[in-house]
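Two folds, back to back.
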Amino acid sequence: MIKAYILTEMRPGDYNKAVKEMKKIENIKKISITAGDYDIIIRAEVGHIKDLLKITNKIHMIDGVNKTKTQVIEKELANSGLYKDISSKR
């Protein structure tokens, strides 16, 4: 399983329509509206890297999306008092 964050820069305006379209894309697990350098951060989980490319291509087709930057997660840690490796199921 490949997990990634897709950092999305939007053109100014209403994001509701763009988020509605993003919700239709298979393998998108979370969509977060953020303040800072990126407007929307998407979490995706796919079986193959080519599927991640399909997701980013679909995101680029959504009206209002300026650009994206994809960050593949190499290792993920959970905070439950102590950090533990939760990606050991690879």
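---
second:
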Amino acid sequence: MLARISVVVFLLVVLAFAVPHLLHGAALPTAGSVAPDFTLPSQESTVSLRDYRGKWVVLYFYPKDQTHGCTIEAHNFQRDQPQYAGKNAVVLGVSVDSVDSHKQFCAKEGLNFKLLADTDHKVTDQYGSLTNMGVVKFAARNTFIIDPGGNIAKVYTGVDPNKHSADVLADLDQLQKAAGGK
């Protein structure tokens, strides 16, 4: 009996450490590291991270177009676009959905910032934000603030879509002050 309990406890410990590694691919890039460069299609054009050098970039990963939490998060980023522009910042959303899905989402929800289609999951994985459920893969709700030099300044994981944009704006303000301006 004691041997069975020990085996069960051992298996639970192994699973506790193994499951997070099975669900997520690469490790999250850390604050201070160079942001992995990428080029992806958006609902309007092709976008490369390097195109935004000299600007602050809010790169947010989200699970799925036209779902409740993702719609709330996108609406809040849209609502706050004038504040981001005033901080020399651009918001880029990334999911594994297609360009056509992004076009429909933007048209339906009145979104005018770029949503990037990472259909091969490469960029989402580079940013440690790919959730793999076997047959289904989707982006985890993670965000990276990238400074004008192309370095990751702040990392958010598992964010609350209701208040995330406000949190990012507050942190962006602090990061810009620490960097001596915009």
